[in-house]
Amino acid sequence: MIDQKNIIEPEKVTCGVCFKEIPISEASSVKATDYILYYCGLDCYDQWKKQQSKPESEKRD
Asked: Coil, helix or strand for 23?
């Protein structure tokens, strides 16, 4: 029988796009100069990348 006290919950991070909590071992990350953004998958990373390439006027919508 497994002792419930010894089970350690994996460290989790929040996806930078959809805000889903994911284990850090499964997260993809992009390191910037002052911060690290984590993504739950390539779909969220692609969505973030598209938002970054839009002109400022389109980001405010």
From this structure: strand
CA dist 1 and 21 (Å) reads: 29
> Which three-class secondary structure state does DSSP give residue 7?
coil
Q: What is the predicted pLDDT for the residue at 20?
A: 92
Which residues are CB-contacts of 19 (< 8 A; sequence separation ≥ 6)?
none
Q: How far apart are CA 27 and CA 24, in angstroms?
A: 5
Q: What Å distances lie between residue 19 and 13, 26, 38, 40, 41, CA to CA?
A: 9, 14, 9, 9, 12
Nearest alpha-carbon partner for 48 in 26, 34, 33, 29: 29
Mean pLDDT of 51-60: 69
Asked whether residue 59 carries a pLDDT value surpassing 60, the answer given is: no
